[in-house]
Structures are given as C-alpha cells and as structure tokens.
Amino acid sequence: MQDSARATETLRQGKDVDWKAATTHAFTRELSDGTLPEHKMRWYLQQDYQFVDGFVRLLASAIAYAPSLADSVPAAQFLAVITGPENTYFLRAMDALGTEPSNDAAPATRAFQDLMAGAAASGRYGNMLAVLVVAEWVYLTWANPENPPHETLPFWFAEWITLHAGEGFEGVVEYLRGQLDKVWPTLDADAQAEATRLFHRAIELERDFFDAAYAA
Ligand SMILES: Cc1ncc(CN)c(N)n1
C-alpha cells in the first residue's frame, strides 16, 4: 500500500508539528551523542518505567481484542521483549545511574497513564492501536537514524537506541500500523473520531514527555 493511502499516515500528518517536535527532540539528540546530563536520564528512566507499566497493560488488552490468533502473535512476542530485555534494561540503567523504580508519577507521566488506561478500558481495538502505534512509531523515527549507536556511549544511552531501532523493531511498528490500517475502514464515524483523538493526544503527550524530561 502507498504510504499516502494508509490511515496511519493520514493520522500522523494531522499532528505533524508535534510529531516533528517529538521525533527530533533535544532530549534524544543529546542522548544519541552522549551529552545528555545524567540527571535528565535518571528522571526519564524513573518516569518512563511507570509509563511502561501502563503500556504493558494496554498491549495485553490489544492482544485480548485482536480479531484472530495470527493478528495477536506479533504483539504477544513484542510483549515478551518489553517484559524481558526492556524491563531488565530499565533496572540495570537505573541501578547504574544510582536511582530506583518509583511510584511518584510526574504530570506528563500521569497524563500518559490516563490515556493508556482509557484506551484499554474503552474495549475498542482501534483505540488501543491508536496509542500503541504512536508510542512505538515515534521511537522508531528518532532512534533508527541513530543506529548503530556511537561506540563510546554508556549502555544506558546505547541500549535505549538499539531497543527502538533495526529490523526487529521496524517489524513491530509495521505490524501495529498494519493492524490499525486494516481495522480503520471497519470503524464507524464515531469510532474513527475517537481513535483519531487518541492518536493525536498520544503524539502531544510524547512531545510533552520529552519536554518534561529535558526540563528536569
Ligand atoms: C513515553 C514513551 N513512549 C514510547 C515509548 C516506547 N516504548 C516509551 N518507552 N516511552
């Protein structure tokens, strides 16, 4: 399918200014060149680990609502990456930077948690995908051009790039986009409007999250 004919591309273009801000942010630029101050990365890891809690629940909900086993398998395999290597990365990186998991959610984190919980509770597969697509596609977009990471980067920067880049992660984003592209024409006007609102809100919140981390 031509990119311009994809629902996910039309949705992305509807929030292009925030998309560009989220995918070319000073936070990820400095992370990639190794100049990001450690206290900003510490803040980010502590807050993003709380984001991951809600993300895992949302992804599990999407697995539950996928129309067939074949539609759910890539999501289930991705869930294993998040709860496996990515979870371990967070714990190792927080430990190396002298911090630990916390339940003290900043406003930007709480806003994302609320969005994800609402999408999961809606019982609408399209809503769940809208948030999942944004969360992973934004990360692929900033991380892929930075891959492979500079050899001199500490692991807490380098692995955050490699977890969101390369063929495997491209496949995850392509799968999530493909699911939303496929379900889109089956949604009525009300469901499309709701999924659009969630998609665009998720882009705003990705930008806000990086802004908050960079301001830490
Ligand atoms: C806020 C946020 N958005 C997306 C991702 C990518 N998994 C993340 N770790 N954190």
Automatic annotation (TrEMBL):
Q: Which domain of life is it from?
A: Bacteria
* Keywords of this entry: Hydrolase, Thiamine biosynthesis
Q: What is its EC number?
A: 3.5.99.2
Q: Which reaction does it catalyse?
A: thiamine + H2O = 5-(2-hydroxyethyl)-4-methylthiazole + 4-amino-5-hydroxymethyl-2-methylpyrimidine + H(+); 4-amino-5-aminomethyl-2-methylpyrimidine + H2O = 4-amino-5-hydroxymethyl-2-methylpyrimidine + NH4(+)
Thiaminase-2/PQQC domain segment(s)? 19-215
Q: Gene3D superfamilies from the xrefs?
A: Heme oxygenase-like (1.20.910.10)
Q: Which InterPro entries match?
A: Haem_Oase-like_multi-hlx, TenA_E, Thiaminase-2/PQQC, Thiamine_Salvage_TenA
What Pfam families does the annotation carry? TENA_THI-4
Q: In which pathway does it act?
A: Cofactor biosynthesis; thiamine diphosphate biosynthesis
What role does this protein play? Catalyzes an amino-pyrimidine hydrolysis reaction at the C5' of the pyrimidine moiety of thiamine compounds, a reaction that is part of a thiamine salvage pathway. Thus, catalyzes the conversion of 4-amino-5-aminomethyl-2-methylpyrimidine to 4-amino-5-hydroxymethyl-2-methylpyrimidine (HMP).
Do you know which PANTHER family this protein is assigned to? Answer: BIFUNCTIONAL TH2 PROTEIN (PTHR43198), SI:CH1073-67J19.1-RELATED (PTHR43198:SF2)
Give the similarity note.
Belongs to the TenA family.
Protein's recorded name: Aminopyrimidine aminohydrolase
